[in-house]
Amino acid sequence: MTATLDLLAIFAHPDDAELLCGGALAASVDAGEAVGILDLTRGEMGTRGTPELRAEEAAAAARVLGVEIRRNAELPDGKLENSLSQRRTVARHIRELRPRTVVTHWLEGRHPDHREAAALATDAAFLAGLARADLPLDPFRPRKVIYTLTFREQAPPPTFVVDVSRQMERRLEAMACFASQWDGARGAGEAFPGGDRPLEDQVRAQLAHYGSLIRVAYGEPFWTREAVRAATLGTVDVPSF
């Protein structure tokens, strides 16, 4: 069965996708790819805002990025776990949306929901492809699972970096939709405060660093378990000198 979405971002909370890979999502949209976001929880344990307000903000951010589908799995915030019942819930969404590629959190992090979301997305993607799994709809398994490295302090070097220079302002506009979470913030999630520097400046600094690795203004870093294939040695990008 062919994919319906080219890319599905699976993240723990509304606003995680924007903070961690909003530029890459926008770049995929600009390249003509069908992109969706699956928020695993409503963020009901968050200190700021309300689940209802965050849902409105998430819808507004999706419009800014240009994603085709945004939905919520309504799993319990603060209680994500890579359990069979939660895997079944996520696998059902994967079977419905049939994404060719899944992008999710890095495998580690200070927030337990982020760590669990990465394992949950990975294992649900596998489960969705099992023909004898007790799930509705036809089996479907994404071809690739990719992990974000943005703001990760102890992550390995990225497997690749996506140029988001053209999408940087749109990324920040999508983030700004979550005013209840980030107005006046200097840090968010795994993005730790940098003194009195506003969150927007933190984001610019982080993405400027990764952009420099591929010789562009801004980039977002990603990691895969598998090596990335190059067509020929002569076409390998990024100059050495």
Task: Give a brief rundown of this model.
This protein is of the alpha/beta class and 241 residues long. The protein has seven helices and seven strands. The chain has one domain: Rossmann fold (3-Layer(aba) Sandwich), CATH 3.40.50.10320.
| Range of helix content | 25-40%
Can you count the helices?
A: 7
CATH secondary-structure class: Alpha Beta
- How is the main sheet built? 7 strands, mixed
Question: What does the secondary structure layout of this molecule look like, with pairings?
Answer:
Elements: E1 5-11, H1 16-30, E2 35-41, H2 51-65, E3 69-75, H3 84-97, E4 99-104, H4 112-127, E5 144-148, E6 160-163, H5 168-176, H6 179-182, H7 199-213, E7 219-223
Parallel strand pairs: 1-2, 1-4, 2-3, 4-5
Antiparallel strand pairs: 5-7, 6-7
Helix pairs in contact: 1-5, 2-5, 3-4
